[in-house]
């Protein structure tokens, strides 16, 4: 419970920082993700193949199988938070005390377009990408990717997104791990 409160506090602080003061981007390294789309007018943000998340809204830890989470080097079972409620999330710890999380951003029917509107000009980094054809963006109010802190938001419907985040991962590789995690989650969400 204590770790959950720390993670929630850090995520909340990062979101508030992104809303209140622009960060200063830090030059990326070869391990940081690079943008794959430059269209920010909304055309590339339209979800072309919407996913119905079904049971995963209430069971966020089910977005990864035990084999997938251990394959990523994490504990087999994630720890659920707010299961069965809006904005449910799950986090997995590693042997090195890093923390990776998956959570829904559905409290206000948040779309990827909303993420762009709120954070595009108020982030230390804002890097649009695509995850298996779904619009996504790496962003945060502070750039701590060199320390293994990374955040990725993915749109799976025009009114629903999920985020995956890393706290204390292995440097900039944490962002690549989030890309892999999001890809696995999309595959599992589609399979139901």
TrEMBL record:
Record protein name field: DUF3558 domain-containing protein
Keyword line: Signal
The organism of origin for this protein: Actinokineospora diospyrosa
Low complexity: compositionally biased ranges: 22-44
Cross-referenced InterPro entries: DUF3558 (IPR024520)
Pfam families: DUF3558 (PF12079)
Signal peptide: 1-20
Sequence segments annotated as region (Disordered): 22-46
Keyword Zinc: no
């Amino acid at each position: 419970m204590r770790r959950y409160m720390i993670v929630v506090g850090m995520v909340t602080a990062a979101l508030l920082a992104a809303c209140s003061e622009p960060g200063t981007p830090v030059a990326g390294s070869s391990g940081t993700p690079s943008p794959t789309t430059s269209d920010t007018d909304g055309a590339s943000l339209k979800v072309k193949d919407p996913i119905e998340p079904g049971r995963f809204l209430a069971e966020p830890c089910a977005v990864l199988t035990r084999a997938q989470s251990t394959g990523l080097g994490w504990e087999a079972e994630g720890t659920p938070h707010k299961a069965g409620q809006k904005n449910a999330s799950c986090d997995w710890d590693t042997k090195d005390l890093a923390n990776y999380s998956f959570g829904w951003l559905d409290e206000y029917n948040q779309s990827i377009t909303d993420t762009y509107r709120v954070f595009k000009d108020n982030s230390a980094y804002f890097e649009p990408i695509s995850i298996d054809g779904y619009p996504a963006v790496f962003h945060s109010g502070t750039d701590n990717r060199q320390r293994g802190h990374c955040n990725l938001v993915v749109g799976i419907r025009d009114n629903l997104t999920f985020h995956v985040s890393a706290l204390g991962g292995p440097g900039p590789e944490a962002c690549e791990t989030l890309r892999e995690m999001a890809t696995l989650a999309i595959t599992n969400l589609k399979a139901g």
